[in-house]
Amino acid sequence: MNLSTRKVVPTPAHLVELERLGDEIAKLSAHLDAATARLLDLIREFDARGGWGNGFASCAAWLTWRIGLDPGAARERVRVARALGSLPRLAQALAHGELSYSKVRALTRVATPETEERLLEVGRAGTAEHVERIVRGWRRVDRIVEARESTRRHRSRTLHVCQDEDGMVVIRGRLEPEAGAVLMKALEAGREALDQRRRDVPAETPPDGLPRTGLIIADDPPTLGQQQADALALIVETALHHGIDPGAPGERYQVVVHVDAQVLADADAPGQSVLEAGTRVSAETSQRLACDASRVVMRHDPAGRVTDVGARTRTIPPALRRALQHRDRGCRFPGCRLPFGQGHHIRHWANGGPTTLSNLAMLCRRHHRAVHEEGYQVERQPDGELRFRRPDGQLLSQVPPPATVPTDPVETLRAQNYARGLHIDAQTSRPAWFGECLDLGYAIDVLHPLVASLRDAPAT
Ligand SMILES: [Zn+2]
Ligand SMILES: [Zn+2]
To answer: Measured by CB atoms within 10 angstroms of the end CB, which terminus of the chain is less buried, N or C?
Structure first.
């Protein structure tokens, strides 16, 4: 009997049966959406409280590892979970099974607390496809508005430098957000460096060998404004001293650390680790920095005079590093997929660990720090596999075992939803749409709050 060509004339009993099946699908889907809302609540709380910080780069990376979502879906869950935190109406509609996750996902891309109510109506009235199209149209308007806004901001960038009557130089300006972020970061670094210098200089020593006069009240700690001013001067001097070219990112962040041989071999040994700028770093940090670095060995006599300077060598020669990259293809920490990283000596070379493939593992910067400074451990098993442990000694598996599911998960889900006071039936998530054609232009015109402003302002 060929089922595909056989003409089925549905009997009334058949129709009733199919209707019941359809209702069952709609009902269970609404239950799943309600459960998804609960899941997103948990993700939002876990994310906000930094639950993923025990070795993962982000909440999404943790979800990928722990519950097996693909990275794109994991990022999307986190995005939607965060967005729903400030969109209570959409969150509630999902929690009551009235809007599907697909609709809520689309709506959270554009919704703000001000437009949420209107978009909720769109979600209730339309099918998922309508919602998707309206959101796309909405984003087009947002993008036009944004582009105008960013052009306006870019044009308004300015920096005035002029001299005041008393000879002080006055600075006033507006920077674009990226440039401003770099400036603030540099100021912070400058303040830290100056602060470190101040702490290193004993109180009796006048700064920079200046003679002390009775007029200088040297003990007053500088105000934040004064610190910022000093930091800016330091940044400017440094920039002119080192040439204005920022160089390649690798060079920009290169760190030179002077470290006693005993400290490299044993973090508890007396000795010192000092960054070239004079900042002290922990023994663990210097071990990490030395793990994969250029190395110049200098020998000192007991008086501290340098007696011998060796040639600069890479702790991991380029050919071996290529082999390592080829074998590990990125960070090996469980759940991390970063495709690049640093070579970590499982047994540190300063402790006599060999620089061989079997003693090396590739780790991203974040996870290299985790094993050196945060107590995570890694060892290579006799079969060649790596084993990672948390600081408390617990094994960190590459793929965690799935959670145990009750024998009848659907019944459990329903019972839980009813216990939460949810009344879900086959009509709960049905759109109010009756088959009319969607007039997208009109819909965006009446829905989007900024359309009017686009009509009024001439295009720039
Ligand atoms: Zn290392
Ligand atoms: Zn990593």
So the answer is: N
User: How far is ligand 1, taken at its centre, from the CA of residue 345, in Å?
Assistant: 5
pLDDT tens digits, 229-244? 999 998 888 887 776 6
Q: How far is the CA of 436 from the centre of ligand 1 (A)?
A: 63
pTM, two decimals, is: 0.56
Question: What six digits make up the tokens of 203?
Answer: 């109180």
> Ligand 2 centre from 261 Cα, in Å?
28
| Residue length of the chain | 460
Ligand 2 centroid – CA 74 distance (Å): 17
pLDDT digits (tens, 9 = 90+) for 168-198: 989 999 987 777 877 888 898 888 888 888 7
Cα separation values, 154 from 44, 176, 459, Å: 34, 6, 16
**Least distant ligand from the CA of 368:** 1
How many whole angstroms from 435 Cα to the centroid of ligand 2?
50
Determine the distance separating the centroid of ligand 1 and the alpha carbon of 354, expressed in angstroms.
13
Question: Can you state the angle between helices 440-447 and 128-155, rounded to 10 degrees?
Answer: 60
Calpha distance 150→176 (Å, rounded): 9
Q: How far is CA 378 from CA 57, 95, 333, 345, 362, in A?
A: 18, 42, 9, 10, 11
Read off the pLDDT of residues 268-305 as tens digits, 9 standing for 90 and up. 666 666 665 555 667 777 788 788 877 776 766 667 67
